[in-house]
Amino acid sequence: MNHRYSIGQMARAGHCQVQTIRYYEQVGLLKKAQRNAGNQRVYDQAQMDRLKFIRHSRELGFSLEQIREILALSDNPDHSCLQVDQIARSHLKDVESKIERLQGMRKELKRMINQCSGDQIADCRIIEVLSNHQLCLAREHQ
Amino acid sequence: MNHRYSIGQMARAGHCQVQTIRYYEQVGLLKKAQRNAGNQRVYDQAQMDRLKFIRHSRELGFSLEQIREILALSDNPDHSCLQVDQIARSHLKDVESKIERLQGMRKELKRMINQCSGDQIADCRIIEVLSNHQLCLAREHQ
DNA sequence: TTACAGGCTACAGTCACTGTAGCTTCAAAA
DNA sequence: TTTTGAAGCTACAGTGACTGTAGCCTGTAA
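^ inputs. structure came back:
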């Protein structure tokens, strides 16, 4: 079948806003869409699939640059997927270090909040900890 | 003692760049610094402490807006620290939901990578999963 | 005196969108 | 057939928290 989609249908399918699709076109992640008589964008199934690929990759946290690379690599079906693998692994590392960083924050925030008496600012443990790095457990500067 | 600091000394102590301090001044988080005869910024201990407060809060992930609020509240030592507590708790919630989101990504990325044979693009599991949301375990749209 | 590190302003760029203003087009109802 | 309202269009500014650049000026140690 020979589906045609409006930009609104694309947006709904890609769980994104209409502007986002226009933005992807502008930065060259989606190629310039064909237009109908009234200058409105019209998409086919291939463009729809490409958008879904991009959106799914974004949900997994890949940057637009990484997605651009993966899309370029995936144009060569005979090519080894080693590079794709490397991009994914390096992104996984990024995600893991973000998790660690956030877990450090969580620990310290919880500690701070639990010590807070809800009393006067003058005795507020939260402000005290924020004021004084020495009071903070997780204070390595990486 | 009556310490005076240059912007470079402030930056080193706050583990940030010189531009960052000028930026904080520009957006009103630090008040306009005094200047020496040659128009260079000169800081005192109070400004140094304020910068450290800001930087430590940033390390814990607070936004500049939240920091601005906390600083305003902490000017009133008699005031209850309930609001400070609320800001901290709401930030903790944010951090926790970011952790959850990243853990979902990590899980899916690991699954994808483990299934990848390192073979041809045509059979690449990573590209396949990215192409097809149905193949993804963590696919709730929150 | 001479290097050169450090500081100054002003402004553009980053990332990935999101929002706005002021239009035009499309499709269904009256 | 007209009208209404949703959907689409372009162009541009704004977001957050910086970071980088260009082209100057100032301070300090050799």
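The helical segments of chain A are 7-14, 18-26, 45-59, 64-73, 82-115, 125-131. Residues 1 and 58 of chain A are 28 Å apart (CA to CA).
thumbs up if we can close this ticket
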